[in-house]
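Slide 14.
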Amino acid sequence: MIVKLGLRALTELSPRVFYKMVHLYMIKGFFAIQAYKKRRKRGELFPPFMFVALTNICNLRCKGCWVEKEGTAFHMEEQDLDALISSVKQAKSHYVTLLGGEPFMYKNIWSVLERYPECYFQIITNGMLFTENNVARLKALGNITPLISVDGWKANNDERRGGGVFDALSEGIARLKKAKLFFGIATTISKYNLEEVLSDDYLETFIEKGALYIWYYVTRPVGEGDHSHYCLSEEQLVQVRKKLLVLRRKHPIVIIDTYWTAEGEAFCPAAMGLGYHIGPRGSIEICPPLSFATDTLKDNGGDVQKTIQSSAFLGGFEKFVNDRTKGCVILEHPQELVTYIKDHGALDYSGRDALAEINAITPRNSHHLPNKEIPEDYWVYKFIKKNVFFGMGAGG
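Slide 15: predicted structure.
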């Protein structure tokens, strides 16, 4: 599998895109993890990766999305974004994930991308805006990997994301492949699409379409409305874990999860401070589904490292999680999470009453599966999870 994957990268990517992927994404990413580990040992809090929501506006209305798109439109101020990227670089990291809303609807996205050729950007997108012109600009820059959200075949995907979305994003993906760009697929696993998105056919289809990695998420019932019926049972979560191990040995595509360590234990990247979410108003949040913050990018004169280091809200989250679970407190302990947020006086940046939404969640299983842990059984993923991707065991 690993040899076939390497051959795919060499033959399916343009030389410029391949070089930037190796240099900016893989090599610099490795050193970012090493710097993060050293900070951890010194008791310093600053993540190796940042998830930055450029805007809350979006051209879709997906079920179960936690981003409020009907109220006031927010766009991150470029000076705040510049200060953030500067702090990230000072921490020996050059990797930033951009999301939204729909990040390609951010009014200044191209000027941002063009200013930082020394950085590597992942852009999580619904894939609806891959016009010929946009794809050409992505290829010219070379330091961007689009991650396109697809939630199953056409019926399941469009049931959640809207009619016609699957066909439209498929056209965009075809343009990415033709341009020989490095891109991936982001798939949220629910009880309705579990079988199809973890099937050989699903992976083989997107390998044929040119995707070099697939990033699996497990659905969380966060956002307006009750979407708890999408959640997985404990038995289904065990099934997901088992199936991932099988698929990793069979297919020449990188299969990423941020749920289990190399030993098969549950893991919360946010609790380890591996990556915080920055809202479009500059709020520094624990993770994308939790739109609460006590700190912003403007605090301490724009010194983001100082702000994060001194934040009791961010710094205390690791102990809060570890005292309760190795998994997701949103699913397992929503009411205690509400208390934690209130006790720190965190502000709600969702544009709704997100605190009431979380408080209304019925506790459910997360990926924490005590006495049912299944270690990685393929040396490649053991190595990646321990050393490379998210380090500290988080990624696959």
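Speaker note: The chain has 17 helices and eleven strands.
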